[in-house]
Design a protein that fits this description.
Elements: E1 2-7, H1 15-25, E2 29-33, H2 45-49, E3 53-57, E4 65-69, E5 74-78, E6 96-101, E7 104-110, H3 120-136, E8 144-149, H4 173-185, E9 188-189, E10 220-224, H5 226-229, E11 232-237, E12 253-257
Parallel strand pairs: 1-2, 7-8
Antiparallel strand pairs: 1-12, 2-4, 3-4, 5-6, 6-7, 8-10, 9-10, 11-12
Helix pairs in contact: 3-4
The structure holds one DNA strand of 15 nucleotides.
GO biological process, one term: DNA repair
Family: Belongs to the DNA repair enzymes AP/ExoA family.
Keywords: Hydrolase, Magnesium, Manganese, Metal-binding
DNA sequence: ATGGTGGGGAACCCA
């Protein structure tokens, strides 16, 4: 089974690329972030024709998450217990959705951006991650994938130039500690060991031709419970998907599960 | 310090 995650930066504007990506890599489950589509604008007929069902959450214009699956979607849960804003579709249900696909519990996560370190959104981001950690701990005992855009670059090598982020979010010690806490609990990075450097980035800003100059960041991750990690046979970042006109600013990340 | 490029949706907000 192949599981992928992709911040598409608008599903409807990217639909042709999404369909080609699914076919090119024979993807069974694709989690999406920044779908930017209301539920009444989904599903999309082309995806159904390819055999994918969709579970989506989010109603506002800039977030939105979804799970596409051709191996079933069961026990869909919008948001996680304790999530700030849980039960408020406008506020934050657009940031997390979970479903069981082909026997694996898959979460599509869009971790809050944080904006600036002195912004209330930064505090909110850390709180959101703490609540996710608490919710995710019991899931370690079953096949679980925490996929998505974490909006954190966990290591210096995950940023093209640390000096450029001296006073920025995504690299601060509290954010990195929040990410590392999942690994401390037993979650495993399913991609990094199988796709070793130097091509580690998953995101390149649209500004200043950052992709063409390979000035990117690693923000998109698939973390797995130990039992799922034991089933991984390969993983890669589809960086070519970031090339050319009409690309998302994020590349998809793919994990093969035996 | 600022502004650069995209997407949504029709004026700004968000990344």
């Amino acid at each position: 089974m192949r599981i992928a995650t992709w911040n598409v930066n608008s599903l409807r504007s990217r639909i042709d690329r999404v369909e080609k990506f699914l076919e090119r890599h024979d993807i069974d489950v694709l989690t999406l972030q920044e779908t930017k589509a209301r539920e009444d604008q989904l599903p999309l007929m082309g995806l159904q024709a390819l055999g994918y069902d969709i579970a989506a959450a989010g109603t506002n214009q800039w977030n939105g998450v979804a799970v596409l699956s051709r191996v079933g979607i069961e026990d869909v849960q919008v948001g996680f217990e304790g999530m700030p804003g849980w039960g408020d579709p406008i506020a934050d249900e657009s940031r997390a959705i979970g479903a069981t696909c082909g026997g694996v519990r898959v979460w599509s996560l869009y971790v809050p951006n944080g904006r600036k370190v002195d912004d209330p959104h930064y505090v909110y981001k850390l709180d959101w991650l703490a609540k996710l950690r608490a919710a995710a701990r019991p899931w370690l005992g079953v096949d679980t994938a925490l996929t998505g855009d974490w909006n954190i670059a966990p290591m210096d090598e995950d940023v093209f130039d640390m000096a450029a982020f001296a006073k920025s979010t995504h690299v601060t010690p509290p954010e990195r500690e929040a990410f590392a806490a999942f690994l401390d609990d037993g979650y495993v990075d399913l991609v990094r060991p199988h796709a070793p450097g130097p091509e580690v980035f998953t995101y390149w800003d649209y500004y200043r031709q950052r992709y063409e100059r390979n000035r990117g960041m690693r923000l998109d991750f698939v973390l797995g419970s130990p039992s799922l990690a034991a089933r991984v046979t390969s993983a890669f970042i589809d960086r070519d998907e970031r090339a050319g006109a009409g690309a998302s600013d994020h590349a998809p990340v793919v994990v093969e599960i035996a």
